[in-house]
Structure formats: structure tokens, C-alpha cells
Amino acid sequence: MTIDAFVDNGYTPGREFSEQLLLSPEFTIQSLKPILSGSSRLKKAELATEIANCQKN
Description:
mainly alpha; 3 helices; 42% helix; 0% strand; flat
């Protein structure tokens, strides 16, 4: 059995943690697209970065 889950390797709280979490297998591109309008052409990494950049610290 393979476990494919997010592991916090000591990411900096805030934007970096959020981006890494959104890039994890727990989130698909289909689950991320509704969060950000106009994101239909973005790849998962681009979408995770854009969403993480929108968060308030």
C-alpha cells in the first residue's frame, strides 16, 4: 500500500505552507479551480501559487 499524503516538512507558516498544501495530492486541479475566478487555463502549480498569494498573513 502506498500512502500519498501531505507531509509538513517545516514549511514557513503562511504563503509557503499554503502553496505546498495546495500542491499536495489532497487537492486536485478540479477542486482548486472554483476557488479562483479566471483560472480555467492555469496548471495546478500556477493555480496553487495564485491562491496562496491571495491569502492574508
